[in-house]
Amino acid sequence: MPAELTFAAPRGAKPPRHLADLSPEERSSAVADLGEKPFRAKQLAQHYFGRLESDTAAMTDLPSGVRERLGEELLPTLLTPVRHIDCDDGMTRKTLWRAFDGVMFESVLMRYPDRVTLCVSSQAGCGMNCPFCATGQNGLTRNLSTGEITDQVVASARDLARGDVAGGPGRISNVVFMGMGEPLANYRRVLDSIRRMTDPVPGGLGMSQRGVTVSTVGLVPAIEKLIDQRMQVRLAISLHAPDDELRDELVPVNTRWKVAEVLESAWRYADTTGRRVSIEYALIRDINDQAWRADLLGRLLKGRLAHVNLIPLNPTPGSKWTASRPEDEREFVRRLESHGISVTIRDTRGQEIDGACGQLAAAEN
């Protein structure tokens, strides 16, 4: 039997228009342009966001003669799952998605006793070039559309609601933009997708803004724009080093916006929203895990509305970067806590399924 053939759109083509790309007003206009009554847009949105249904053939409240056309024009297939890989007794599931043009990216669903968190991608690849990151090693292919970002959530929520994930039917409570890509480098589409997630049904999925976390390496102008939105999403700063000398190497965008400037912007976000900022710090053996760097980080954060999330590095094949020794990790935590800093160590889920973002897509490519 010949190998399965897949056909991709020409490079540079735009994703097809999708209901999730549009505001409620734009949906009504789009339906009217198709010669249908504008209220059909609300019916479509009720199915997609409220019932997690994308197949117009199942939307029996729509006239049978218009279902196929409305589906083709406003609910085209955006994402095709290439594979699901499970671990943690099925409580962690990574999905590799293929978009209309053949590009691939990932999301990870993580089920805990008290919550379900979905980690989504905002770009195919990433242009930030952080040397220890699997996604950064592959470069940026393109931004994802609002619909492509949102559809990761809707598709995962559908599987969860239907009991296709271990643990029985459930609901997504948290979405974190910590998958492939730098979210604030795709600012408008990420912001629009957050609105689709958090606007009440049928405008969106009706999730709480407080359940959404946006991670950034520190694109200061975009953080300032986010401050102006007065949203209640959590901001996470991927810091990884408290000193500019090392951070210039680990997070190359630091040559543009230094540690002090990034943190000043983060504190403005915290002061405006009242929400604690998460400081993401991947512990890398003999690189950034020295006790004196923990002390320096503690002094930078002392008295601020901040929490440190230490991340044991998930090494990528052939990389010189690896996780810290357990004793160094413990001392790093102790030093931070001695400065009165709240610290947690991220759950190291997914290592056996290429848990670091970008590893599965890289392997497939």
TrEMBL record:
Pfam families registered for this protein in UniProt: Radical_SAM, RlmN_N
Active site feature: 106, 357
InterPro entries: Aldolase_TIM, Methyltransferase_A, RlmN_N, RNA_MTrfase_RlmN, rRNA_lsu_MTrfase_RlmN/Cfr, rSAM, rSAM_sf
Reaction(s) catalysed by this chain's protein: adenosine(37) in tRNA + 2 reduced [2Fe-2S]-[ferredoxin] + 2 S-adenosyl-L-methionine = 2-methyladenosine(37) in tRNA + 5'-deoxyadenosine + L-methionine + 2 oxidized [2Fe-2S]-[ferredoxin] + S-adenosyl-L-homocysteine; adenosine(2503) in 23S rRNA + 2 reduced [2Fe-2S]-[ferredoxin] + 2 S-adenosyl-L-methionine = 2-methyladenosine(2503) in 23S rRNA + 5'-deoxyadenosine + L-methionine + 2 oxidized [2Fe-2S]-[ferredoxin] + S-adenosyl-L-homocysteine
Binding site for [4Fe-4S] cluster: 126, 130, 133
Gene3D superfamilies on file: 1.10.150.530, Aldolase class I (3.20.20.70)
Class in the EC hierarchy, top level: transferase
SUPFAM superfamilies to which the protein is assigned, alphabetical: Radical SAM enzymes
Region of interest: Disordered: 1-27
GO cellular component: cytoplasm
Keyword Cytoplasm in annotation: yes
Positions bound to S-adenosyl-L-methionine: 181-182, 215, 238-240, 314
Compartment(s) where it occurs, according to its Swiss-Prot or TrEMBL record: Cytoplasm
Recorded superkingdom: Bacteria
Gene Ontology terms describing biological process: rRNA base methylation; tRNA methylation
Basic and acidic residues: compositionally biased ranges: 18-27
Family per record: Belongs to the radical SAM superfamily. RlmN family.
Protein name in UniProt: Probable dual-specificity RNA methyltransferase RlmN
Organism encoding this protein: Streptomonospora salina
